[in-house]
Design a protein that fits this description.
Length: about 450
């Protein structure tokens, strides 16, 4: 997909990214090429000599460095990044552990401050699209609008009391279900399609063990009424699978199927504890899997991602509130899959790059618009440091990007045609303020957690 010259011929483009090594999924690397952008779209991709004279309102000199599509992160909760560095050694579901800040302590302003930090991190590391959901979706959406990122925001719909669940008791709280569903519907009404269309809203039922089937069915009806994307956690832990088995005598995927959610508008995060029948059904239903290799491995788990892929399931990648580095995620996906495959060389750089770009785009209903560097696609792309020793030599481009690249190598990020990161710093946020505010919120939360009985 190349175009000999920017069009219309001779007229100025908004932005010309000159002299880069283009890495786009499914295509050989193109060294010494340039990308022209007008408005929110890529209008030309061509050898630099053929576009050297094109007038451009703004020019970025790539100096031969790598340029790739902006990375698409299909599952994250930016506010939980506040407990990062403190919970990874504590076991599963540390958010319900005494001595750790509890998610429900976060008010709107705390959520906003932490979301801004998480989004700044994602931006600086080359992620240009993220699915983010938590229990206060409105401040999440507000932070997303400000960030310049392309965001899909949802609430955290649930009607099972998680505090009781942590103590082994299953208690349904219809009031909680109503309140969390109302929050999600409210964020849809207020934010869907806002920020020049960069912001979209999804429905976010938390998981099969924290939502009653009745609540899940209501979500399915709502999603079917307007074709909305639904996002949930699926088979994330043995505990979840056992609870669902004990309560309903079924597997988690069976419940999703029965309530009408297992379809090609569902993005299911984790998908670790699945049996062979569930893998087949997920693949046949067109459900998208959000694979979180880093978070899963921190918990000692590896999802059967190669089995899912071979069954035909559609796969995307996510950081799930761990490091915001999607390069690390791509690499981890390969490593853990090879460990699970007992040394077989399953997966490769090209496959995981597809998952992190066109795979994510398909899951978000943006197939053909997002995830490639090609004319007619939205201008979401990243330019990496041409002087980074870890990114040389560039031979096929994909291998070095995936196996050796890292978030801090990103110098420029462009989202929807706008430069949102320049010289590795966000242009949309005052980073010092964002860091100071988030640190203040985290300090107060940890002080409260230490004082809690
Ligand atoms: Zn999650």
């Amino acid at each position: 997909m190349t175009d000999g010259a920017p069009h219309p011929s001779g007229s100025a483009v908004d932005l010309l990214i000159d002299d880069v090594a283009l890495v786009s999924p499914g295509e050989p690397v193109r060294r010494g090429w340039s990308v022209a952008i007008t408005g929110r779209e890529i209008v030309a991709v061509a050898p630099r000599d053929s576009v050297a004279d094109t007038p451009a309102r703004r020019r970025i000199d790539g100096r031969g460095g790598l340029c790739a599509p902006g990375l698409i992160n299909t599952h994250n909760h930016t506010p939980i990044m506040s407990v990062r560095g403190m919970v990874e050694d504590l076991g599963f579901a540390p958010a319900y552990t005494p001595g750790v800040p509890q998610g429900h302590w976060l008010g709107d302003e705390e959520t906003f401050a932490l979301a801004r930090l998480g989004l700044a991190e994602l931006l600086c590391q080359g992620c240009t699209t993220v699915v983010d959901f938590y229990n206060r979706p409105d401040p999440l959406a507000r932070a997303m609008a400000e960030s310049g990122l392309r965001g899909f925001v949802g609430g955290r719909i649930m009607d099972v009391d998680t505090a009781a669940l942590a103590n082994g008791r299953f208690e349904t709280r219809p009031d909680l279900g109503e309140a969390t569903l109302a929050d999600n519907l409210d964020v849809i009404a207020r934010w869907d399609g806002r920020a020049d269309g960069r912001l979209r809203c999804v429905l976010g039922p938390h998981a099969v063990d924290t939502c009653s089937p009745e609540l899940m069915r209501r979500v399915a009806d709502l999603a079917n009424s307007d074709g909305r994307i639904v996002h949930t956690h699926l088979a994330q832990s043995k505990i979840e699978v056992e609870r669902v088995q004990t309560r309903y005598g079924k597997r988690s995927s069976d419940i999703l199927d029965e309530v009408g959610l297992l379809n090609d508008r569902l993005i299911a995060a984790h998908c670790i504890h699945l049996d062979a029948d569930e893998i087949k059904r997920i693949a046949e239903s067109g459900t998208f899997v959000a694979h979180a290799p880093t978070g899963n491995a921190t918990g000692g788990e590896i999802a059967p991602i190669v089995d899912l892929m071979e069954a035909g399931a559609r796969i995307t990648l996510c950081t799930d509130s761990k490091s915001g580095d999607m390069f690390e995620t791509m690499r981890a996906a390969i490593k853990v899959a090879r460990i699970r495959a007992e040394g077989r060389f399953v997966l490769n750089a090209a496959t995981v790059l597809e998952w992190a770009t066109v795979g994510g785009a398909a899951a978000l209903g943006m197939d053909g618009r997002l995830g490639r560097i090609a004319p007619g696609y939205l201008a979401d792309l990243i330019v990496l440091d041409p002087d980074a020793p870890n990114l040389r030599p560039i031979v096929d481009g994909v291998g070095i990007l995936v196996h050796s690249g890292s978030g801090p190598n990103v110098r420029t990020s462009i989202c929807d045609g706008h430069i949102v990161v320049e010289n590795g710093r966000p242009t949309t946020f005052d980073l010092e303020t964002v860091i100071a505010e988030a640190q203040g919120v985290a300090d107060a939360l940890w002080e409260r957690a230490r004082a809690a009985p």
